[in-house]
Target: Pentapeptide repeat-containing protein
Amino acid sequence: MKIDIPKIAPVLTERRFKDIFYEEDPLLEMCEITGAEFTNEAVERVHIYNAVIKNCQFNHTDFEKMELTDVRFENCDLSNVNLNKASIHRVEFIHCKLVGCEFPESSIGNVLFEDSTLNLAAFGNAKLEKVIFNESILTNVDFYHCKFKKIEFNRCDLNETNFEQTSLKGIDISTSSFETLAVSLESLNGCKVSSYQAIQFASLIGLVVKD
Model:
């Protein structure tokens, strides 16, 4: 599946993330931010457009209703960040840490998670369209009651991920691994799995598979 990549200008202005903290309408655009530490803060409705953010730490920061468009995060730590009701479009997370990151009720489209860690992240009631999780760790991630459209999980760790009330129709998880999932039979209808995973699912619902 091809997704739209971020549209980022070839020349960007260097900015500091703290520059926006006191602005009435926090906005960063056409900029590059490197090495920022913006942790344990709270700033609502931040708008970031056409930007590259590298080697930054945002741990435990409240970014509720954040709007991200055409942004690339590289080697950033967004652990326990609140992105509730965020709008995230044409965004890449490359080698990022998003442990415990919260995305409930967010709109997420044309987004790539590449070689990133999302353990314990929460996406409940979010809408995801054209999203790729590539070689990422998603153990104990909560996708409860999400709307999926054109989602890929490529060689990911999905152990103990929750897909309750989320349809996996047309979703291919055959290259990913898990020991157990929280998922209903209705949610699995139309999901693409490997033969080994089919046996795993059979055992989860109590079937005994004989050779």
Summary: The longest strand covers residues 27-34. The chain has a mean pLDDT of 92.
